Amino acid sequence: MIKENLTLFTWITLCSWILFGCCWLTLRNRTKENIQHRTTRQRWMAAIGYMIIFSALYYPLFTGTRLLPASPLLQGLGALLCVTGVCLSVWSRLLLGTNWSGGVAAKRNHELIVKGPYRLVRHPIYTGFLTALAGTSLVVGGGAAIFVTIICALSLYLKIGQEEILLNELFPGAYAAYQRQTRKLIPFIL
Q1: Does a structural domain hold residue 187?
Q2: Which residues, at least 6 apart from 53, have a Cβ–Cβ distance to it below 8 Å?
Q3: pLDDT, tens digit (0-9, with 9 covering 90-100), for 10-41
Q4: What is the CATH number of the domain that holds 172?
Q5: Can you say how many angstroms the Cα of residue 50 is from the centroid of all Cα atoms in its chain?
Q6: Which of 57, 136, 145, 189 is deepest in the core (most CB within 10 A)?
């Protein structure tokens, strides 16, 4: 059953997510010191969360159940969205550099990054991640993939609120001006 479901588009999404994972693993400890440290529990919860997300994304490959049609056009669009989203996330993560944190945390000598994709949206890593999730959902077509994409979008939207409070505290005035110039997730819209 799983071999029948592994289309070229599925392989493209899998390779994209592997690239994403390799980037995150490679760069995870190349950051400035956190002012507030994440607990071991928080780190484990994040790892478990990623396992759940990716298991749900690819669940239809094992069951053969799809909600969306297996249209080459729809799957091609999904693969393109996934690749684009992963590339945007990786580019944004590289630009953020040592200021990146897995949780909402201030770094010692934290800097405000406003170049590259940060000129258009304040949270391009999340924009890319959600775009890649949506693209993978179109390729795989399962209900669990669609559900996890919606839950991730809602969760990240809540996390953005916490991050923006922190960034306004770290960069009084400067972050508020940046907020007026850019959107949260989608250029010119949201």
Answers
A1: no
A2: 133, 148, 152
A3: 999 999 999 999 999 898 888 877 776 667 78
A4: 1.20.120.1630
A5: 11
A6: 136
